[in-house]
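Design job #97: recover the sequence.
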């Protein structure tokens, strides 16, 4: 595995692949890697000739400085994991490399409308501007043919799809399924920060999402939201939202309709740690 810290070195190296018509797959991450991240790497290895992973904790997408400060960082372990998983190229830039002092990296001019106003957009002001800013910057450095991102961050995936569409970027976005622990908890870098008690409380998130699917036969979306929020509170979590949305465009729904897939998205705090998860609860 080649490890690059400077974008100029990475670009020079990739130019050679590109000139030989090798297709490049790209997996951007913030490190503290787990099997969910590796599943994106494997999806890229199955699709492209060469895979670039990046590890960069992007400061501009954190709306709480404590969250940025406490974000887990395990670079040595991450390098070993990627090397052992057969990753071709790892890009690990410093902040100055992604956001050079010489010029301002723009926040992409993309009209997101309600996509950025609901759920994570409402609860994490500025978050998606930071996500779009870093993803567009990394895409311009790597210029991949394929971009692999997880459905775990469903709203992020939807927004990046919209950014690619509006800016007519020549990259194919591949959404990959959420990997879970054997008990159902969605894998997340933040899970390592959970105390044993909060780790067992956090299970209520995936359990409630699974139950919400069975409630859809008898209850309305509003009733499901209410019941789910109560279940999360009873489990000792502090939910921020539990919303039901059209899986295509993230419009919030108040009825179930044939032909419209509905996804439930949740954010809840287990102690200090904020977790998100989602699940399709009405297949349409
Ligand atoms: P992060 O390092 O948290 O920014 O995540 C990097 C990429 O990994 C994003 O595209 C995430 O959606 C994806 N990802 C995070 N957790 C999982 C998971 N449990 N299963 C699959 N993909 C994931």
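Job complete. Output follows.
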């Amino acid at each position: 595995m080649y490890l690059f810290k400077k974008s100029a070195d990475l670009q020079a190296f990739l130019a050679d692949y590109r000139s030989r018509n090798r297709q490049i797959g790209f997996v951007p991450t913030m490190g503290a890697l787990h099997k969910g991240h590796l599943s994106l790497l494997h999806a890229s290895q199955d699709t492209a000739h060469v895979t670039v992973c990046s590890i960069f904790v992007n400061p501009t997408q954190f709306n709480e400085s404590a969250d940025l400060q406490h974000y887990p960082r395990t670079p040595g372990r991450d390098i070993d994991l990627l090397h052992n998983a057969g990753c071709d190229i790892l890009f690990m830039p410093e902040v100055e490399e992604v956001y050079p002092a010489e010029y301002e990296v723009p926040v992409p001019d993309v009209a997101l409308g309600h996509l950025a106003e609901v759920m994570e957009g409402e609860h994490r002001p500025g978050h998606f501007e930071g996500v779009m800013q870093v993803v567009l910057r990394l895409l311009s450095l790597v210029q991949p043919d394929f971009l692999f991102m997880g459905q775990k961050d469903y709203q992020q995936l939807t927004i990046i799809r919209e950014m690619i569409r509006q800016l007519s970027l020549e990259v194919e976005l591949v959404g990959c399924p959420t990997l879970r622990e054997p008990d159902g908890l969605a894998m997340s870098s933040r899970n390592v920060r959970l105390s044993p008690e909060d780790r067992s409380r956090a299970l209520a998130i995936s359990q409630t999402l699974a139950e919400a699917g069975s409630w859809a036969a008898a209850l309305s979306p509003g009733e499901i939201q209410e019941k789910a929020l109560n279940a999360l509170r009873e489990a000792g979590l502090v939910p921020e939202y539990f919303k039901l949305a059209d899986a295509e465009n993230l419009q919030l729904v108040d009825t179930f309709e044939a032909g419209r897939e509905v996804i439930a998205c949740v954010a809840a705090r287990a102690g200090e740690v904020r977790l998100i998860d989602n699940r399709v609860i009405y297949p349409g």
